[in-house]
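Q: Please design a sequence for this.
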């Protein structure tokens, strides 16, 4: 066969160089796409569903990757893996800002007490009938949102959805601006002793 001849002729060498260059280009493109995803530059949306569909695990994994900033808006917060994911991020030097619905000050199962004890300085958004957002913004590159509350019930019992966006800078910018707008009318959180309510019992 002609391609087995040695030394190879000029035409064979030309096609070998073309093939090698093509494979090198594909390898480089793949590497750049992987790097872009890690840096949040390539548009990507991941979807999760509960109960027990990996929502909580996915959020914890994103919190562990945070390096500079985590912004949280939540209606209810009772899931310890997420709570301590934020505590750990704070200990690593990440700026963590948390805005919660006013019900957390009287909710028996809220993790507000843990946030206060760990020095995370959560704030309460009492400007609205319900502050019903479920949003986490990480390093201005990752946006987590959906119906999924940051609670044990959402993970193990409820039918919920969760979306994780990367590589959508304009979308993330708008969500971050909305966070800042809500933070402007928030007040520091306090446990309102003697007014505890049991939302689950209700």
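A: Design:
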């Amino acid at each position: 066969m002609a391609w087995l001849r040695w030394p190879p002729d000029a035409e064979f060498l030309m096609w070998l160089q073309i093939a090698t260059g093509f494979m090198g280009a594909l390898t480089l493109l793949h590497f750049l796409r992987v790097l872009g995803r890690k840096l949040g530059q390539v548009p990507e949306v991941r979807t999760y569903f509960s109960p027990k569909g990996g929502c909580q695990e996915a959020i914890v994994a994103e919190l562990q990757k945070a390096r500079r900033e985590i912004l949280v808006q939540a209606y209810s917060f009772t899931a310890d893996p997420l709570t301590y994911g934020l505590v750990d991020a704070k200990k690593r030097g990440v700026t963590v800002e948390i805005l919660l619905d006013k019900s957390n000050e009287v909710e028996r199962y809220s993790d507000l007490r843990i946030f206060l004890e760990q020095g995370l300085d959560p704030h309460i958004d009492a400007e609205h009938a319900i502050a019903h957002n479920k949003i986490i913004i990480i390093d201005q590159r990752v946006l987590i949102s959906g119906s999924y509350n940051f609670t044990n019930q959402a993970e193990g019992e409820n039918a919920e959805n969760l979306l994780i966006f990367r590589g959508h800078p304009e979308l993330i910018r708008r969500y971050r601006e909305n966070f800042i707008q809500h933070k402007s009318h928030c007040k520091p959180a306090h446990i309102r002793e003697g007014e505890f309510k049991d939302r689950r019992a209700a």
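Q: Thanks. Anything notable?
A: The mean pLDDT is 88. Strands lie at 44-50, 69-74, 95-101, 123-125, 135-138, 142-146, 160-166, 187-188.
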